[in-house]
Design a protein that fits this description.
globular, 8 helices, mainly alpha, 225 residues
C-alpha cells in the first residue's frame, strides 16, 4: 500500500514538473544572491578584497559557519513562502504528499551535513576544517537534489550533478601533490570561493536559465494552422 501511494505521488510530481521549476527558480535566485553577498562579505573580512586587502586574516570555523547559516535561513524562508503561495493558489494543503516525499528524499543527506557542521562548530580552532565543511555542504546538497531525481525536473538533477562534481574535483585538487598552492583553492579563502561558485553562481545560472525558459514558453507565438 505504501509503495502504491509513493508511485501515485511520484507520478503526480512528474506531471507538475513545470510548477516545481517555477517554485525552484525564484528560490535559487534568492539563494544565489544571498550566497554571493556572504561570499563578498567574508572575502572582505578576511582581507582578500577591499581597501586594505592583505590576505592575512584567518577566519575560524565559527566565523565561517554563522554567515552561511544566515544565508540558509533566508533561502529556506523564501522557499517556504513560495511553496505556501503555490499551495494557496492551487488550494492544496501545505504539507502535501508531494512535499513530504521530497523531504524524505533530501533529509538524509542534509542530516549528515548538519552533523558535520555540529562537529566543526565544536572545534573552531581547526582552520583546515572549513574546507572539508564547505565541500561537505556542497556534496551533500548535490546528493540531496539527486535524491529527488525520480520526480524532479531534469534541470534540478543537472544542478545536483554539478554540485557533486565540484565537491569531488575540489577534493581531488586538494590532494594532488602537483597542484601549486593556489590561494583560491588551498588557501584560507578556498572554502569561500567554493561556496560562492556553487551556492552563488550555480544557483544564479539555474534561476536565470529557468526563468528565461519560462518566459519564452509564455511569449512563444502560436504556430499557424
Amino acid at each position: 500500500m505504501r509503495a502504491r501511494e509513493n508511485l501515485r505521488v511520484i507520478r503526480s510530481l512528474m506531471e507538475r514538473a513545470t510548477i516545481y521549476r517555477a517554485i525552484s527558480a525564484p528560490t535559487a535566485l534568492v539563494g544565489g544572491l544571498s550566497a554571493l553577498s556572504v561570499c563578498g562579505w567574508m572575502l572582505s573580512k578576511s582581507g582578500y578584497i577591499g581597501v586594505a586587502a592583505q590576505r592575512s586574516v584567518a577566519l575560524t570555523a565559527r566565523d565561517f559557519i554563522w554567515p552561511w547559516l544566515v544565508a540558509l535561513l533566508v533561502t529556506g524562508a523564501a522557499n517556504t513562502f513560495f511553496i505556501w503561495r503555490e499551495a494557496q493558489r492551487d488550494q492544496r494543503p501545505f504539507f502535501s504528499p508531494g512535499l513530504r516525499l521530497a523531504l524524505r528524499s533530501v533529509i538524509p543527506s542534509f542530516f549528515v551535513a548538519g552533523a558535520i557542521t555540529f562537529v566543526v562548530w565544536r572545534n573552531p580552532i581547526d582552520l583546515d576544517s572549513t574546507t572539508i565543511l564547505a565541500l561537505s555542504w556542497i556534496g551533500f546538497y548535490g546528493l540531496g537534489l539527486l535524491g529527488t531525481m525520480n520526480f524532479a525536473p531534469r534541470s534540478l538533477v543537472i544542478l545536483g550533478v554539478s554540485f557533486v562534481l565540484i565537491a569531488v574535483i575540489w577534493l581531488l585538487l586538494l590532494s594532488s601533490p602537483l597542484l601549486p598552492d593556489i590561494e583560491e583553492i588551498r588557501g584560507n579563502e578556498g572554502p569561500t570561493f567554493a561556496m560562492g561558485l556553487t551556492f552563488g553562481l550555480f544557483h544564479l545560472i539555474y534561476a536565470i536559465c529557468t526563468l528565461a525558459r519560462r518566459r519564452a514558453a509564455v511569449t512563444q507565438p502560436l504556430a499557424p494552422e
